[in-house]
Design a protein that fits this description.
The chain has about 270 residues and is of the alpha/beta class. The protein has eight helices and nine strands.
Length: about 270
């Protein structure tokens, strides 16, 4: 009997992610690429690169089942099915860390808080998609203000001895506030700490709306922001759980897990 493979493709606003699983649910390939203007092209490129990592797998047309998710999930015309990124982040987290019950997913242009049950299904969620403050694009803008890349910016606040508050709730006004604080020769690391704290407060507000339960984790590319994770841990008075896989691929992983379930007739 031929080997069967299952795919998940998460087409986000800033990156495209693809995961390939085998019949036992093991991750055979994972890919993260910058998003193209055309979401369909993003999905094709991500899947082609992922399939190329699996010996014996021709291309995504040879997958037994493929699920699309994310901002551009409706632009994956060759997927067998599309499932919301909220459900996929829940299932992806559950599949690798079933003890985690609360997720903060920080995407390129929105932030979501998700409560999940003991089977990986969504109990409740809350979303902030009215403003870019606290999103991946917000952190990209902040790193440009500080004249450094995202990795360097994420580490900057770890050096701070105190926190200089950044009070603006709007992304545009926050950027102006930070530029003004820097111009007054305030220590950059203390301003960066203020930015991380401000984003943590927004995350905490969303978490309170869904009834936060331990353990808590962060998914999406911003989960790699060490300064943010430390600030959020302090805000929650608990350690933010680290996932055993790259937090940026969790949505694609959840889609692939659903694909395997659906193909085997075990999905809901």
């Amino acid at each position: 009997m031929a080997q069967r493979y299952f795919g998940g493709c998460d087409v986000g606003s800033t990156t495209g992610k693809a995961i390939i699983l085998d019949e036992k649910g093991a991750i055979l390939a994972s890919v993260i690429i910058p998003s193209e203007i055309d979401p369909e092209l993003t999905s094709r490129l991500a899947l082609e690169q992922a399939c190329a990592q699996v010996p014996g797998l021709g291309d995504y047309k040879d997958l037994s089942y493929l699920i699309g998710t994310g901002y551009g999930r409706n632009e994956v015309p060759f997927a067998d099915e599309n499932i919301s990124e909220i459900s996929c982040h829940a299932m992806g987290t559950f599949s690798c860390s079933p003890d985690i019950k609360t997720i903060v997913d920080i995407g390129g242009q929105d932030v979501k808080a998700i409560a999940i049950d003991d089977r990986g299904a969504v109990l409740e969620f809350a979303m902030n998609d009215k403003c870019a403050a606290g999103t991946g694009r917000f952190f990209e803008a902040m790193s440009r203000v500080f004249r450094m890349d995202l990795e360097a910016f994420s580490a900057l606040s770890l050096k701070a001895g105190r926190v200089i508050p950044v009070t603006s709730q709007c992304s545009v006004f926050a950027e102006s506030e930070v530029i003004s604080l820097l111009a007054k020769r305030n220590p950059p690391e203390e301003i960066a700490a203020g930015i991380q704290t401000a984003v943590s407060k927004r995350c905490f507000t969303l978490l309170k709306r869904i009834g936060m339960r331990p353990r808590v984790t962060v998914t999406g590319g911003c989960a790699k922001n060490r300064g943010l994770i430390r600030a959020l841990s302090k805000m929650l008075a608990m350690e933010v759980a680290e996932l055993p896989v790259d937090p940026q691929i969790i949505g694609a992983l959840g889609a692939a897990v659903y694909a395997r379930q659906r193909s085997n007739g075990t999905g809901g």
